[in-house]
Amino acid sequence: MKMSHRSLPDKTIERLSQYRRNLLICLSQGKHHIFSHEIALIHHITPVQVRRDLMLIGYSGTLRKGYDVKELIDLIGLILDTEEGLKVAIVGIGNLGRSLIGYFSGKRSKLNIVAGFDNNPDKIGKIYAGVHCYSSERMQEIIVEEEISIAIITVPADNAAIVAERLVMAGIKGILNFSPKPLNVPPHVYLEEIDMITSLEKVAYYVKKQL
Amino acid sequence: MKMSHRSLPDKTIERLSQYRRNLLICLSQGKHHIFSHEIALIHHITPVQVRRDLMLIGYSGTLRKGYDVKELIDLIGLILDTEEGLKVAIVGIGNLGRSLIGYFSGKRSKLNIVAGFDNNPDKIGKIYAGVHCYSSERMQEIIVEEEISIAIITVPADNAAIVAERLVMAGIKGILNFSPKPLNVPPHVYLEEIDMITSLEKVAYYVKKQL
DNA sequence: ATAACATTGTGAAATACTTAACATCAAAAA
DNA sequence: TTTTTGATGTTAAGTATTTCACAATGTTAT
User: Fold this and answer.
1) CA A107, CA B180: separation in Å to the nearest integer?
2) On chain C, which bases lie within 7 A of the protein's CB atoms?
3) B91 and B173 part of one domain
4) Three-class secondary structure of residue A42 per DSSP
5) Can you give the residue range of the structural domain that contains B38?
6) What is the pLDDT of residues B123-149, one digit of tens each?
């Protein structure tokens, strides 16, 4: 089990996260070993792809018995997680923000949403599924104080740019942006964008093509 | 302006959708021509990539004046949209569902959310930002009746599989799935998955790497 | 008129990612 | 004990996507 994964492909990272989630389910069902073709089936990919991913992270299964579920989960954790975990803030406590808080609360112990921010005075001071909502004005202060390193932006498009700028100034290291406006961040801040409108238009394109 | 784009790269489709959104903003600001490097700057990609995409859709700009914004928007529309538009249903009117309804309502005239479905009796019969919420039991009936071709799944993970199955049976052609469980659909149904947990874990991975 | 320039369009190279092909080997079967 | 089987691990080939390099050419400056 060598640790020689200097730089894993982007797509492999995504799949590792997905593998882990389903491996945890397998484990909870009492399944302790799994074959590459079983993992592949769950994720609708080829067994070779699974084996390649595991090869890249330096994991070896047992011939004819497959992979040890528990070991694999732990190894993926070693790659994706930090030991102490990372703190996450969510900016914009609208429907989307609250939905995300719901998704994450309690689930992944290594990524905790520890603060929410919003401008709406009705929301400030309230607690949503365990997450305290603060005034946006206190963003910088609390991010520094709590050592929050990741932010999720779920504010309306027009506010996203200014929010991002303030997050960067506060020392945020990674941003997950749901606003459909491309953001401008310095290269030392990792930016991941989820563009739901584009995703839907893409579905529409392929539906059209098939008609 | 030839129409020889038998099969555009997946990534090009995504970018076209994004280009269009920002071109519409340019147009509304009175900008009628745009250079490849200007488009590139907005989207944080290279000018060559922009030119390549436009080449692939068979659009030619004017040397030294760049691209005609209006023409380009129209051409992208010709590729991404159907003339009559497509109808969209949203299954699961929780926080995420309502947030998506908010995003799309009124914005894109060619993709209209025309129905929502939920099991919660409190929600059935209500109207959310113009979208009527029906009982999930009427899903099949209404999809057929209204000729809905696209569905967005925003139900909890455990219900997603059965929802997908029923959507396929009802004749849905494309699905945008927000549940973190990989779905199983026949090959004639286009499936796009947005995995918010994976996206966040990916951000965490790159943040960790940079530390 | 001519030269310098800035921009487009594109073949070819480079990079990133996936899949095929197969050597290897432990377990099960004969 | 030997053969067959069915899995892994990996090199090499294939595909998809991005970038390089540069020819072509209209516009502006001289």
Assistant:
1) 13
2) 6-11, 16-21, 24-27
3) yes
4) helix
5) 10-80
6) 999 999 999 999 999 999 999 999 999
